[in-house]
Each structure stands twice: as C-alpha cells, then as structure tokens.
C-alpha cells in the first residue's frame, strides 16, 4: 500500500512581491494564480485559480464559443507560448446572461478534469469577504497577456503587471465617462491620467487587492478603449457574486 501526501496551498500567498508599475513584465512566481484560458489552443482570456479544480474568469469569453471540448487552460507559466501542458476542461458554468443588460453578471467558473498540482508557480488566490468594501483610491493590481497598444495590438508574449486604483462609481458614471452604465455589481479601476489599463486579451483576469493575503476583488470585464484619460476599466465585482461562486463549487 502506498501513501499519498496532499499539499494544501494557502490562498493569496506568493514567493515574491510586485516590484514595478505600469505595464511591465512580471513573473508567475509573483502571480501564481494567473492562467491562460485558450480556445483551440490559442490565448483568449485570463483567469484565476481558486483551488485545484476551479478557475474564475469572465462569462463573455464564452459567449460565441460554448463548446467545452475546444477550451484548454495553461497554468504555471508567465510565457504565453511556453510548452507547458494544456489542461482539459470538464465543465464551464456561466452566470445567467441578461439580454437587456449584456455587460451585467460577467463571470464564469471553469472546472478542470484533473486537479492542478500546487507548487511555487501554481497557487490559488483568495476570494474577498462578503462585506469587503474598498475606499476610492485603494491601490489595486492587474495582470495579463493582453494588448500593450490599443490599436493594431497583439498579445504580450510575457505576463504584464500594473498598479491601478479604485475609482469612485459616481466619477466612473460621469457623462464624460460611462454615463450611468456602471452598476453596483461592477468596479472601476485605473489611473487618473490614463495610460495604464487592462485591454483586449486581459478579459477574465483578476483585479487584486492585498490585505494580509492577495484577494481577487474584480474580474476584467469591459471598457471604452484602453487606458483613455478619465475612462477607467470596468470589472465584475466579485463580492457581489460570492454565493453563486460557492454554490457552483459544491457541484
């Protein structure tokens, strides 16, 4: 008889802390919960490891590509075109789509066929608390392989990181920005002068907050362009959907 040792990784812990700001290259040791979600083995969206079986991402990634067999996940690497193995997807759970408000409820959960092996480069991120309330200007972080330039852009080969800050919803809903389109289940984040933002290919990735451990407080969702002055990115507010996340993960 053989004995199997199970290693339970504590959520939100990494080996290294972030060291640079504003769309700079980073490493998977700093952000070990980041994964590439791939359609037909091509990068499509980002996602975050919650535990060995479950990945949190955005529902709009699957709106036009719903065949589970065409999706794979790549974890444990900061290089988009590395030879790390593709992980098979068992099921995709998408929050109910609202035809009248298509940007609402933009989150999904991926269940893997086989559990991830936790390591220094594969770790889960923590979910926020139910009563988590962040003040405007709270420092936050975004990561991804998305476009570095908005026009004629292409995916970054290496994982990028940037520091942003939480933007007050009233400011975000100003007539010069989103004109009331940002609801209570969304967050806005960016920098006042623009130039630092999530972009195409970053969708589904985490908006992160550090309080003793790293938490995923938002999911990259939508926006008007990338990094425009006074027009920050919009993120799904994770704390608003915690009941759904916990209930799906029981399945």
Task: Outline the structure in words.
This is Peptidase S1 domain-containing protein. One of its GO terms (molecular function) is serine-type endopeptidase activity. Keywords: Disulfide bond, Hydrolase, Protease, Serine protease. Residues 20-250 form the Peptidase S1 domain. This protein is mainly beta and 251 residues long. The chain folds into two domains: 32-124 and 241-250, Thrombin, subunit H, CATH 2.40.10; 138-239, Thrombin, subunit H (Beta Barrel), CATH 2.40.10.10. 4% of the residues lie in helices and 31% in strands. It contains two helices and 13 strands. The chain has helices spanning 169-172, 242-248; strands at 24-25, 34-39, 42-49, 54-57, 71-75, 87-94, 108-112, 139-144, 160-167, 186-190, 206-211, 213-222, 233-237. A six-stranded antiparallel β-barrel has the order 8-9-10-13-12-11. Strands 2-3-4-7-6-5 form a six-stranded antiparallel beta barrel. It is globular and about 45 Å long. The protein starts with 23 loop residues before the first strand and ends with a helix.
């Amino acid at each position: 008889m053989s004995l199997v040792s199970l290693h339970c990784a504590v959520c939100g812990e990494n080996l290294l802390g972030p060291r640079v700001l504003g769309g700079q290259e980073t490493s998977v040791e700093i952000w070990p919960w980041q994964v590439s979600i791939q359609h037909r083995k091509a990068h499509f969206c980002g996602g975050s490891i919650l535990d060995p079986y479950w990945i949190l991402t955005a529902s709009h990634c699957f709106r036009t590509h719903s065949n589970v067999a065409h999706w794979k996940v790549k974890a444990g690497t900061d290089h988009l075109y590395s030879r790390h193995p593709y992980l098979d997807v068992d099921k995709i759970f998408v929050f109910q789509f609202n035809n009248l408000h298509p940007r609402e409820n933009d989150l999904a959960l991926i269940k893997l066929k086989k559990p991830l092996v936790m390591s220094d480069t594969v770790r889960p991120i923590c979910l926020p608390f139910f009563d988590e309330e962040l003040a405007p200007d709270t420092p936050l972080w975004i990561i991804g392989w998305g476009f570095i330039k908005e026009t004629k852009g292409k995916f970054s080969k290496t994982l990028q990181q940037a520091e942003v800050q939480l933007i007050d919803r009233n400011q975000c809903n100003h007539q010069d920005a989103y004109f009331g389109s940002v609801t209570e289940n969304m967050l806005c984040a960016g920098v006042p002068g623009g130039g630092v933002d999530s972009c195409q290919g970053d969708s589904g990735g985490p908006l992160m907050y550090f309080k003793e451990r790293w938490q995923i407080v938002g999911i990259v969702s939508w926006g008007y362009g990338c990094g425009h002055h006074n027009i920050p990115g919009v993120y799904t507010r994770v704390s608003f959907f915690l009941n759904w996340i916990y209930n799906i993960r029981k399945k």
